Inverse folding.
């Protein structure tokens, strides 16, 4: 077999002038690389240290590195075709490391891989396979970038074209060596063609977005590692990302790592609805700032390359960060810019001020009197938590003050009672601080977190259950900065754990629809005339209704991407009907527009995020939209109302379950 | 312009208010405290005047130790320095007594303008600012929504009944009592709080101000409002009942 395999030919002798020329060109190439890369590295290292950075535990870092960098899994999973093309190029580069070293060593007569030897031949042949893959991959990427031109890639750049050409040339010259068997001059010429391509490629790397070749493996390895983690401020002069002096090493590293693929932009709800925010431009803006002002500058960042308006259009849905293949953490950057503006008082927004003032003096983000919560608790005879119950039922601002949120809470209460789960609510509860945390008001967030932590400790709360994924996230992750929060779970997780005991949801429905002729007639009639039935809201999913009701579940960002809970709410919703999926679901779900405190900031520019999402949900043909977050609920409710006739019904998964409960409960 | 803003710390809006055993005042234990809202607007107006015309904003507050948190809030929002009149018996003093304390503390400052809220959210007497003006011998205007500095002094906008406004020109120095809602309040910031730590907060003992005098008005008793429902069933035929209802709506409820 061995002799049947093709063999690459390498030149055997080099003249002295050739060696001299190579040395000069190699030095020039390395200089061209360093002249640009050196200052970039310096800027990254000159940035201030990240206050909460620890290399250990290292296991997750290694795993992320293997998964995201070596296996290219993230690149491939989110854009399969393009991802594979990229992976082919990447893997070929890895395979080529040894080939290239040997290629240069040959010149000095110290080649360590003999293309004719058995090991060398095998390696060269394997590399050749990679080379073919790489050539095909880069060709595909070239066609995409210059002919198909998806808008995420932005303006055409000469650099990308040149790099693609050079990579293709590298592969072509490598592969050609398998076919050119002499004369010596031809072999020599091929060697030089390959070498010159290589030497031209090196200095291009730091001058183009191909800098990610060098930086992104480090970016992925050193990333904060937990999704959308907002780092603590350090010292008395840290107010967030105000000026260059506030940029940390991780942020600077990330700014220079951006490969401008535009996945963040493609998935950004703000960008998709005509707002100024473009997460890619935010990162490139930081890079531009670093290039002009450097990491020690006192020059304010907002108003230079990035605007305040863009920073405050982010819903913190995290789609950008989730998609980013080079480990950029957009959410901490955007929240960091907001912190800089809010903590110094530079952000002036009447809605924002109203929210902050409401929480400075009052207890909730809705600006209502706390007595309204007391009345709600009293009227519905919700037990007060006294330390004997298993769960502290955290109402949250929406659950305690918003009429729809209250309905969700009451539905959950009925189900918990039916399941025999013991629970109680706190006498007093303050907003967890979610909206002010994401808007960058650290003073207020700290006050709220500390007050709540103290109240929970006093009441000896061990376990919290809540209907609001924003509360879950803030309690579990963000409060850690100021103490040890109790265990917390979202009601979808609780309900899914009791799935076996929720058979009444489907059981009741099935018997009603299949065995009662009148009911089944009604059901089939409804199923056929789904679109024009307008009275379904009253009776949808009432016991007599169909199991075949189509339900589409809308993933809340703070439950899905933030908490990695996708299946539990689906399992619960599936009890009440047939699940269908929206085109964007699970980790690619599209935001409702409420996150990041934006629910409180009034009218948005461009199209409303909630309307875009609602139309997408309507288009699934589902009769019911199942939500699992009171903020999604309120946003989608308005959007579905705007859709008008034929809009599906909107309910929380807790309500879906509670409807199946026997009457007497 | 040198501006003194007199602020009062009052029970927080959401705080559960209980009447003390002697029924003379409320139980202060477990209460949360906040800046009196009209005073917050007075502070905002002062800060805006300073931002426009330069000068200094001094906050002044009387009360026990706990008042310090409200003073720091005012410093955090942008006041330059503060004076706290330490007195543990604010509740026992009438408006004249409190105004005397404030006046004594203000006199050495010799300010161009004194601002305070038109009334407090707890007692709501609406007297302190006006008496303060009298004690300082300064002209005053009440219910002010907006202040504009002119060459001659001030032009102020007063809120009257039923959506009417009155513009008044007056000389400086002066005392103004501010109405809520004339401005947008600013939010407290982390930077403000950190900077506030380095600002001067001078404590003065009430006794040092030498204003001990018997109150001219004493608070006899406070009580919680009684909740009562008085449902009346109108008897007679439907026609008679309807006629009686219309009569009541006209004469008692005065909605018709």
């Amino acid at each position: 077999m061995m002799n049947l395999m093709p063999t690459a030919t390498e030149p055997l002798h080099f003249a002295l002038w050739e060696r001299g020329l190579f040395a000069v060109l190699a030095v020039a190439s390395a200089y061209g690389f360093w002249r640009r890369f050196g200052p970039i590295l310096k800027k990254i290292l000159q940035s201030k240290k990240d206050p909460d950075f620890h290399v250990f535990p290292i296991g997750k870092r290694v795993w992320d590195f293997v998964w995201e960098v070596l296996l290219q899994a993230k690149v491939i999973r989110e854009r399969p075709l393009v991802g594979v093309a990229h992976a082919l190029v990447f893997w070929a580069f890895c395979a080529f490391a040894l080939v290239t070293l040997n290629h240069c060593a040959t010149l000095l007569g110290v080649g360590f891989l003999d293309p004719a030897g058995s090991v060398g031949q095998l390696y060269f042949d394997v590399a050749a396979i990679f080379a073919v893959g790489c050539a095909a991959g880069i060709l595909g990427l070239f066609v995409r970038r210059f002919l198909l031109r998806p808008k995420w890639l932005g303006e055409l750049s000469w650099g990308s074209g040149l790099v693609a050409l050079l990579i293709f040339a590298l592969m072509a010259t490598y592969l050609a060596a398998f076919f050119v068997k002499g004369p010596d001059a031809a072999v020599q010429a091929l060697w030089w063609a390959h070498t010159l391509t290589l030497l031209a490629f090196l200095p291009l790397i730091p001058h183009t977005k191909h800098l990610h070749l060098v930086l992104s493996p480090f970016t992925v390895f050193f990333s904060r590692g937990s999704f959308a983690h907002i780092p603590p401020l350090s010292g008395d002069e840290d107010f967030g990302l105000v000026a260059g002096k506030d940029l940390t090493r991780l942020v600077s590293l990330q700014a220079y790592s951006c490969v401008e693929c535009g996945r963040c932009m493609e998935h950004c709800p703000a960008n998709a609805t005509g707002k100024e925010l473009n997460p890619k431009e935010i990162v490139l803006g930081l890079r531009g700032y670093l290039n002009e002002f450097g990491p020690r500058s006192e020059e304010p960042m907002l108003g230079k390359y990035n605007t305040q308006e863009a920073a405050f259009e982010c819903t913190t849905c995290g789609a950008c960060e989730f998609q980013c293949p080079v480990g950029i953490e957009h959410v901490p950057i955007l929240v960091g810019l907001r912190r800089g503006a809010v903590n110094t008082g530079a952000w002036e927004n009447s809605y924002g001020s109203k929210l902050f003032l409401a929480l400075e003096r009052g207890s909730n983000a809705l600006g209502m009197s706390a007595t309204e919560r007391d009345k709600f608790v009293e009227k519905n005879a919700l037990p007060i938590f006294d330390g004997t119950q298993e769960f502290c039922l955290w109402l949250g601002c929406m659950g305690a003050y918003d009429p729809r949120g209250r309905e969700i809470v009451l539905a959950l209460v009925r189900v918990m009672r039916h399941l025999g789960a013991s629970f109680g609510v706190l006498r007093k509860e303050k907003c967890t601080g979610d909206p002010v945390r994401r808007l960058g008001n650290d003073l207020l967030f700290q006050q709220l977190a500390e007050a709540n932590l103290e109240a929970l400790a006093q009441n000896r709360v061990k376990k919290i259950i809540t209907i609001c994924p924003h509360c879950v996230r803030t309690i579990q992750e963000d409060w850690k900065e100021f103490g040890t929060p109790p265990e917390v779970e979202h009601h979808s997780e609780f309900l899914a754990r009791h799935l076996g005991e929720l058979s009444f949801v489907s059981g009741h429905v099935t018997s009603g629809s299949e065995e009662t002729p009148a009911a089944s007639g009604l059901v089939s009639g409804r199923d056929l005339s789904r679109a024009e039935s307008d009275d379904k809201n009253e009776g949808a999913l009432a016991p007599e209704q169909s199991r075949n009701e189509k339900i589409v579940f809308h993933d809340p960002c703070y439950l899905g991407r933030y908490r990695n809970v996708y299946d539990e709410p689906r399992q619960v919703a599936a009890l009440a009907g047939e699940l269908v999926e929206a085109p964007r679901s699970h980790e690619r779900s599209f935001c409702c527009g409420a996150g990041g405190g934006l629910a409180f900031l009034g009218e948005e520019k461009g199209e409303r995020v909630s309307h875009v999402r609602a139309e997408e949900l309507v288009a699934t043909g589902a009769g019911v939209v199942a939500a699992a977050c009171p903020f999604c609920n309120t946003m989608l409710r308005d959007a579905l109302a705007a859709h008008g006739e034929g809009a599906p019904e909107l309910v929380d998964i807790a309500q879906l379950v509670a409807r199946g409960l026997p009457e007497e409960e | 312009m040198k501006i003194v803003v007199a602020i009062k710390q009052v029970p927080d809006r959401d705080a559960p208010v209980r009447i003390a055993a002697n029924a003379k005042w409320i139980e202060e234990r477990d209460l949360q405290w906040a800046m009196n809202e009209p005073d917050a607007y007075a502070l905002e107006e002062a800060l805006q005047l300073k931002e426009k015309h330069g000068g200094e904003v001094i906050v002044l507050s009387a009360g026990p130790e706990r008042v310090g948190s409200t003073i720091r809030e005012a410093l955090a929002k942008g006041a330059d320095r503060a004076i706290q009149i330490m007195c543990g018996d604010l509740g026992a003093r009438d408006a004249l007594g409190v105004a005397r304390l404030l006046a004594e503390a203000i006199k050495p400052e010799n300010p161009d303008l004194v601002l305070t809220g038109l009334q407090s959210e707890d007692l709501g007497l609406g007297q302190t600012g006006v008496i303060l003006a009298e004690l300082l011998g300064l002209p005053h205007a009440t219910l002010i929504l907006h202040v504009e500095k002119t060459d001659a002094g001030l032009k102020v906008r007063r809120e009257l009944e039923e959506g009417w406004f009155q513009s008044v020109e007056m000389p400086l120095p002066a005392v103004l009592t501010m109405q809520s809602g004339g401005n947008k309040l600013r939010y407290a910031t982390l930077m403000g709080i950190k900077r506030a730590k380095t600002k001067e907060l001078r404590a003065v003992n009430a006794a040092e101000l030498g204003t001990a005098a018997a109150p001219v008005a004493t608070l006899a008793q406070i009580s919680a409002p009684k909740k009562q429902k008085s449902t009346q069933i109108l008897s007679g035929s439907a026609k008679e009942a309807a006629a009686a209802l219309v009569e009541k709506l006209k004469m008692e409820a005065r909605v018709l």
